[in-house]
Design a protein that fits this description.
With 511 residues, the chain is mainly α. It has three domains: 123 residues, 3-Layer(aba) Sandwich (Rossmann fold), CATH 3.40.50.620; 139 residues, Serine Threonine Protein Phosphatase 5, Tetratricopeptide repeat (Alpha Horseshoe); 169 residues, DNA Cyclobutane Dipyrimidine Photolyase, subunit A, domain 3. The protein contains 23 helices and seven strands. The strands form two sheets. Strands 3-2-1-4-5 form a five-stranded parallel β-sheet. Strands 6-7 form a two-stranded antiparallel ribbon. Helix 7 packs across helix 13, helix 12 runs antiparallel to helix 13 and helix 15 packs across helix 16. Bound molecules: flavin-adenine dinucleotide, ligand DLZ and iron/sulfur cluster (SF4). The site of ligand DLZ has 16 residues, from helix 1 and helix 2.
Length: 511
Amino acid sequence: MNLRLILGDQLNPAHPWFQSTHADVTYLLAEVRSETDYVSHHVQKVCAIFRSMERFADWLEGAGHRVRYLTLDDTAAHADFPSLIRHLLETDPFDSFDYQRPDEYRLLSQFRALEFPGVTVTEHDTHHFLVPFEELAKTFPVDRNLRMETFYRRMRKQHDILMDGNEPAGGQWNFDVANRSKLKAADLDQIPVPQAFSTDVADILQRLQRHDVRTIGSIGQALDWPTTPAEAREQLVHFCESALPAFGTFQDAMTDQHDQAWLLFHSRLSFAMNIKMLHPREVIDAAIHAYQSRPDISIEQVEGFVRQILGWREFIRGIYWTRMPDYQSLNALAADRPLPDFYWTGETRMNCMRQAISQSLERAYAHHIQRLMITGNFAMLAGLDPDAVDAWYLGIYADAFEWVELPNTRGMSQFADGGIVGSKAYAASANYINKQSDYCRSCDYMAAGKTGQDACPFNSLYWDFMIRHRESMERNPRIGMVYRNWDRQDAESRDLILQRAAWCLAHINEL
Ligand code: FAD
Ligand code: DLZ
Ligand code: SF4
């Protein structure tokens, strides 16, 4: 008898395990406290994972497999997977235990240490990523400075994606410069209505309450996330039809002037991909098919989208697995300030932060530029402790799993890895936020102000950050110019800016 574990982010119906049925194999899906508790998750994330697990179990059963689904009620006596699995192996006549390789260092270490007398333990691949696990060490050597762009071009060639023979389709590898438009009033009409879902999760909410599971954020009447591969595919089709035609153009734009400002032209497919309901290659192929069959989708749009999945997503995973476990404690900028309360409430006078945090609490979602240039940028400028920042990002987003959250947060956004993911810190003042959004127009603070109580905190904090880290940052030729601008200002102005920053840091919860 063989017991096979399927984790909450391993719901891949195309996995080789499920291609034939075996009477001696039992599939196990289990709600377990170690997973609900390793961080405070958003309530929508837990509900979306549990409902997707249940529906996956139903599908497996319908396809003729033997399945055990254990809820929190059934697993209450077991704190984690090793304890639960030991119990199951002792109470039923299983002689082998199989698992798919977890996408997280913590669980992988736990599973590789499992030993049960008389039971064979076997690890299997998840068959989900485009770079095979065994090739990660060769593809992402630890002794080399890696850049996403180089990796991405190699992936395009290797998988023959958006290629004209040996040349990139459209004559350019990267249309990033075409992806920076601000939304003008006339563009707001183009923002599509997102695909919505409304799954009843009242029973799960009751279960979470019964077991005192601590969650963050809110949930409306029903769950607005896909919970089956069919629903995820609906979301993909809807995205290609309605948002892909402008995805690249407005990839970095932000607004608070529209009902769908929280999503704009983004796909919200990360959750479905990360729990493996949807294969990244299927998403890439669907976008390219739409581009090839529809004249209103230009290469700039589709390339921008493909780059995120074929490039960034795979690159980030490679960094995670080749740099862990050291990576999780890197703190190159020695940041140590606690997270201000407004990260948990959204209650701040800074409009950009209020919008990004409130929608995250309300929807378990923020789009990339909000995560990077608003909440992430503020955290880095203010010197917030990267452990606290990681825990926030890992908990609040429905798509957050450590392999993808950690290098994005600690690396790309906080520069705590000292430049492994990106070549420079994404530090920005109000100037950038004002250029990419209309947040500043309805903010209590003055985007142009650097000193005094009304001045935008991002401005003085930006300079304070740059001065705090001058020695290391100035070595980067892409940043040297910034210091020449600073040095040109008179001493009194510089002093006032740093005083304003000191006030902001001392009164951070009042901002
Ligand atoms: P779209 O804008 O529609 O992009 C399409 C897809 O590209 C995404 O679904 C995603 O799979 C992929 N993608 C885009 N950017 C990245 C990236 N930088 N890394 C990996 N994949 C990417 N993404 C997660 O999936 N989980 C996380 O926990 C996560 N944490 C992040 C934390 C920070 C601080 C930052 C700056 C980014 C983080 N990202 C994370 C990356 C990115 O912000 C999200 O993938 C994206 O916002 C998800 O929304 P979407 O599906 O609408 O993406
Ligand atoms: C995130 C999550 C949560 C909240 N709960 C469960 C669970 O009860 N059972 C389960 O199998 N998986 C859950 N997950 C997803 C796991 O935490 C995820 O598989 C690991 O973090 C590896 O990526
Ligand atoms: Fe954010 Fe500053 Fe603009 Fe206000 S003025 S929205 S705080 S960048």
